[in-house]
Design goal:
Structural class: alpha+beta
Oligomer: single chain
CATH architecture of the largest domain: Orthogonal Bundle
Bound molecules: zinc ion
CATH superfamily of the largest domain: Winged helix-like DNA-binding domain superfamily/Winged helix DNA-binding domain
Strand content: 15-25%
Number of domains: 2
Number of strands: 6
CATH class of the largest domain: Mainly Alpha
Length: about 140
Amino acid sequence: MSRTHPSRKPCLTAVLRMAGLRPTRQRVALAELLFGGPHRHVSAEQLHSEAGLSHVNVSLATIYNTLHQFHEAGLLREVAVDASRSYFDTDTSDHHHFYVEDEQRMIDIPATDVAFQSLPEAPAGMVVTHVDVVVRVRKATA
Ligand SMILES: [Zn+2]
């Protein structure tokens, strides 16, 4: 059974080109892991271990660089959970997240489920680009 979908590869190559990224073999392989299925949230460490399982040999540093390049190109959204942990979201549309602390995973919250009663004006000369809400949850103990 083939691990990759032949019909998807040219498509991902085109997506990378349109985002201004040269479709190197590594970038296409990582794009396949990221965008080959439904929308998902992934950390650099998770993607690194998935790459290893798929025999894509890349260092964790390369994973970080590629994730940041994809993010800068608008292909991924970065959701910072704390100073040391970020997730990359393949769904770049406007939405918020639950962060399940004891499972270290994110669950989407539709943008319409969060309402703000008041937001501060952006500082002089600045505009608000977006507002990220992370609602931290854990399993309720009985
Ligand atoms: Zn999300």
